[in-house]
Amino acid sequence: MPSKTLEQDITELMHAVGLLVRRTRNESCADELSMTESMVMSRLANDGPATTAALARAEGIKPQSMGTTITALEEMDIVKRTPHATDGRQMLIELTPKGLELRKKNRAAKQIWLSRAIAELSPEERDALFNAAGIIKRLAEKPTK
Fold first, then answer.
1. Torsion sign (Cα): 128, 129, 134, 136
2. Rounded CA gap, 74 and 81, in Å?
3. Which has the minimum average pLDDT: 66-70, 103-107, 128-132?
4. Cβ neighbours of 78 (radius 10 Å)
5. Bridge-partner residues for 43, per DSSP?
6. What is the pTM of this model?
7. What kind and span of H or E run contains 95?
């Protein structure tokens, strides 16, 4: 039986990571949010207030598309715009108290599900998984050329 190729292994890795992301998303309370909306909330929670342009760059989408996402989140009272402290032409986007609470609730639901799933693994599997997490993070943070 021939061994798998590197390309097949890469495809399986991408598929597995995608499945895990979708599964944790399904376990959260974020049914009413798009993936981009969830990512914006996460970025704002982790990195603090940002301009629409900075959020668009960080997510790799057009500023107009990010503007649409921000407007939708504003309508749900999840984010708000505040004037930039040093540049009166810019507005900063930040999470509202409702947005912070929703983010906290979603994160807790994901962590509960994942904690339970990981608890069913053997100690060796858990070690391998946690070691792989560091490698996956390094890959994800690698600059594009």
1. positive
2. 8
3. 103-107
4. 23
5. none
6. 0.74
7. strand 91-95
Give the H/E segment covering residue 116: helix 97-119
Buried b (16+ CB within 10 A) or exposed e, 81-106: beeeeeeeeebbbbbeeebeebbeeb
CA angle 37, 116, 107 (to 5 degrees): 20
Residue 59 CB neighbour total at 10 angstroms: 16
Reported as a single tens digit per residue, the pLDDT across 34-60 is 888 988 999 999 999 999 999 999 988
7 pairs with which residues across the strands? none
Tokens (6 digits) for 81:
């715009």
All structural domains of the chain, each given as residue ranges with its CATH number in brackets, are 14-141 (1.10.10.10)
